[in-house]
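Technical note accompanying the year-one report. For the benefit of new consortium partners, we illustrate the data format agreed upon in the data management plan: each record pairs a sequence with a structure-token string. No post-processing was applied to the example shown here.
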Amino acid sequence: MVRRSIIADVNSAIPVILVLALVGSSLVCAALYALFGKPSTAQGEKRKKEVISGFQLTGGILFGFVLMGSLVFGAAFAFGQIPDSRVSRPLAAMFAGVAFFLIALLVQRWAKYFAGWIVWGVINSLTVLGTGHALNNPTVPVNRPYALAVGGLYLFSFLPSRRFAGSYKLALIDKIALMTWVLAFTGAAVVQHAAIPIMSIGVMVLVTAWWLHRSKLHHRSHAIVQTADRS
């Protein structure tokens, strides 16, 4: 039974490995072109800039996955949720702390892509809801109401985070809300039996920051209207 489970895990991981290999090959080609390519026309120069921009975006996304993975798995090892005598808990906690610090330091950069990441989470939740098992692992069943609840929390996270796209300048309350959401996501991944309540805290803080932003805009527009009426 154990051997069959291992074989099933390997077979389910093959498509993911192939996709990652394809993405890695594309990134290598893009990097070589960006570094050594010498376009002879203005259109070629523009295309080169677009390739460089796409390479930077893809690299940033992959770096973000590395940071979030380090945070989640570091916290899981630190709190003993993944028992392994070869991994030092203090070292795992240090890796998680460094990852959290870097995520907080770069919050303005990744906030514009946060809504897209949330959409990816919604799609994954719907996939789990339809299949009834974990992604790429049919041997791990997932309760459908649980998947539906997680998808709903992702959806409520998406609605107030759309405003972060583009050149939106994060306020302090926005940064606090985003980092609280990251902590809640990490806590939900580590303490899975309380994932829904923990995730709900992050969503509530994110919605509260959105409501405060809307209230501030409303008061500002109301003050402008009153000033215009007086003049």
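Partners are asked to follow this layout when depositing records. The CA atoms of residues 78 and 89 lie 4 Å apart.
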